[in-house]
TrEMBL record:
Residues 2-113 form the VOC domain. It comes from Flagellimonas allohymeniacidonis. InterPro entries: Glyas_Bleomycin-R_OHBP_Dase, Glyas_Fos-R_dOase_dom, VOC_core. Pfam families: Glyoxalase. PROSITE patterns: VOC. This is VOC family protein. The lineage of its organism: Bacteria, Pseudomonadati, Bacteroidota, Flavobacteriia, Flavobacteriales.
Amino acid sequence: MNLNQITVPALDLEKSITFYQTLGLQLIVKASPRYARFACPEGGSTFSIHLVEDLPQGNGVMVYFECTQLDDKVQELVTQGISFDEMPEDRPWLWREARLKDPNGNQIILFYAGENRLNPPWRLKESP
């Protein structure tokens, strides 16, 4: 099994398209006014947004995008006017993360984890 895509809700499709293009995603489908889909610049996964009348309540959606040059990417985005809630910081779970919100309040985490993404020291042992 392989993860194909994640879809998040949006109140304003055009504003969301601009935001995600600024992050570096490539717009591959634009079915205005209800849906847009992006290709991630690395790997084979995609990301989409769909128009909703109301956003979910509570903690909402959290989406992680891995960036090998995290600090450089964050600085590039800051110069393009993107605001971050948290600048890059090393986390106890051995990932370096920066956090921001998209125009709809969805939590976006840009991170770099290297080997620890799939193989942290506390990973469960493989079955025999």
